[in-house]
Amino acid sequence: ARNAKDCMVSYYHFQRMNQVLPDPGTWEEYFETFIDGKVGWGSWFDHVKGWWQKKDTHQVLFLFYEDIKKDPKHEIQKVAQFMGKSLDETVLDKIVQETSFEKMKENPMTNRSTVPKSILDQSISPFMRKGLWGLVTNAEPAW
């Protein structure tokens, strides 16, 4: 799960650059659309709440984006343990390195740079923008 405000900002910019989805309108219009759950992927609130409830009755590992950014090594270890695997330090360090936002932003397999502009117009907004969250950076929102 990720902070709702940060998801909303990411989704807004994604929808602006995605030529297949409807134009999100102004930030104010999109804010209302997102809060009402009237986006193509449904309500963020219902989605997160639904998985949160299932974590106690099903084999679901619930992670937070903010925790992954804060201590990726620890969170990757959680995933491995959840899957019944043990990773040695070398492998764990390599996973942390290869899954860093900076590394993934450079990788065409994850940054979507090979997707045609007619589908994802990254001149409007890059697919991978900042990889930050407002609560930690104290940055002013992009809108």
TrEMBL record:
Location of this chain's protein in the cell: Cytoplasm
Record's GO cellular component terms: cytoplasm
SUPFAM superfamilies: P-loop containing nucleoside triphosphate hydrolases (SSF52540)
Protein's UniProt keywords contain Cytoplasm: yes
Enzymatic class: transferase
Protein EC: 2.8.2.-
Keyword terms of this UniProt record: Cytoplasm, Transferase
Family matches, as Gene3D superfamilies: P-loop containing nucleotide triphosphate hydrolases
Superkingdom, taxonomy of origin: Eukaryota
Annotated Sulfotransferase domain residues: 1-133
InterPro entries cross-referenced by the UniProt entry: P-loop_NTPase, Sulfotransferase_dom
Pfam hit, one: Sulfotransfer_1
Single GO term (MF): sulfotransferase activity
Membrane-spanning intervals of the chain: none
PANTHER family from the UniProt entry: SULFOTRANSFERASE SULT
Recorded family membership: Belongs to the sulfotransferase 1 family.
Name of this protein: Sulfotransferase
Protein source organism: Ictidomys tridecemlineatus
Species classification: Eukaryota, Metazoa, Chordata, Craniata, Vertebrata
